[in-house]
Each structure stands twice: as C-alpha cells, then as structure tokens.
Specification:
The protein is an alpha+beta fold. It has 4 helices and 11 strands. It has a domain at about 30-85 and about 130-220. Helix 2 (about 65-80) packs parallel to helix 4 (about 205-220).
C-alpha cells in the first residue's frame, strides 16, 4: 500500500468519526422536579371541615431560575455524554408544548413526556434519551423543639437519572442524595379551631443552589 493511499484511508476514517460524533444528540424527555410544599409554604392555615378557610403562601420560582435550571441541565448532560443535549417537549398540532404545570410542589415549565416511546416520537433522530427525577423533601423525620408547637425540618435532595439509546438500551444511570443542609424551624399555633403554621422555608435561590450542588455531584458519579 503506497503512502498516498494510506493517507486517503486515514482521512476518510477521521472524517467518518467526526461526522458520526456530530450525528449524536440527546433529548431530556422527562424532567420531574418536585419540592415538598412543607419546605416552601411559609404561612399556612388549616381548619378541619372548612376547606374554603384553608390556604397557604409561598414564593414562586421565577422564570429566570427555571430557565437557568434547564440551560445548566442541558449543559451538564452534554458534557457528560459528549454530545448536544436539549429539552424535549410534547408537541401539539398548534404551536404549543406540553410542560409540567407546577401543581403539588412540581416545578412548572419542564418536559413531562410520560414514556420513552412518546419521547422518541416527539423528538426523533436522537441517539440518547434522558429521564430525570429531582425530589427535595423533608428527610430524617422531624426534630421536636418542645412538646407543644415547635419543630425543625431538615431538607434533603435526591436526583436519579437514566440515559438510554434509541433502542431503549441503558447507556448510563446515576443517583445522588445530599443531606447536609440546615434545619428549618416551624411553629404551629391553634387559633379558632384551626392550625396556623409559620415556617422557615427554602427560597427559590436556595432550591436552585441545592439542585446545582446535587447535579454537579451526579455528573461525577
């Protein structure tokens, strides 16, 4: 084999490898991000048998932080998988996307495609499909400050992720949990036959910071 022909073979092989690398891409089709309402509701009224009198107050996650969560999650998985990664939303016939609705502590505006099959249909021609679950919850039980109405809650965060190929064969999976966060105080007072709770809670920025810490740890698992 002469030198010229060998060089042509090497160039062709290199071109194929580069082209193949660029043809790889990933889609995050399911991104469930839930925060226990106990950790976000700083004022809550509960009256048994009086549903209309029950209500709570909390700070909503601003759109800028939701956008940062999406962008940083895409970037983290792109670096992990060494390919472009984007959010994959269910598409209707009209120009709309199906996203999480922000009920019961679920963060709104994230992909909520329930099955791999539907995710592949909505975002075809990808080679990796990613399912991500984030849960921020009260871990380790309640810490009683006194016997009447004061407790402390310790927040924890757990992330589980699974990556499959276009044939649904597992490529990678990971799980991480972080527990070392400060306890939050809650005081409950009995007033007019109902309970009023005043609580220290996680701010949107603290929730975002917890997620980024856990995501970074997940990526090195």
């Amino acid at each position: 084999m002469n030198i010229t022909r060998l060089k042509l073979i090497i160039i062709a092989a290199s071109t194929f490898a580069v082209s193949n690398a660029y043809s790889q891409s990933g889609a995050i089709y399911s991104f469930n991000f839930k925060v226990d309402p106990q950790l976000t509701e700083y004022y809550k009224v509960e009256k048994s048998g009086h549903l209309l009198s029950n209500y709570s107050q909390k700070d909503e996650m601003p759109q800028s932080l939701i956008d940062s969560i999406k962008i940083n999650t895409e970037a983290a998985f792109a670096a992990k998988l060494n390919m472009p990664v984007q959010m994959c939303f269910h598409k209707y016939s009209s120009p709309m996307h199906f996203t999480s609705e922000g009920l019961n502590g679920v963060l709104e505006g994230l992909p909520e495609i329930t099955t791999f099959k539907r995710g592949q249909k909505d975002c075809p021609q990808n080679t990796r499909y990613i399912k991500l679950d984030v849960l921020i919850f009260v871990g380790g039980g309640y810490f009683v400050v006194n016997e009447t109405n004061k407790t402390k809650m310790r927040p924890q965060i757990q992330i589980t992720a699974k990556v499959v190929d276009e044939n649904k064969q597992e490529v990678w999976k990971g799980k991480v949990m972080l527990k070392d966060f400060e306890k939050l105080k809650t005081e409950t007072i009995l007033i007019d036959g109902g309970y009023v709770k005043n609580s220290e809670v996680l701010s949107p920025n603290q929730i975002y910071a917890m997620y980024m810490l856990a995501l970074n740890k997940l990526m090195i698992e």
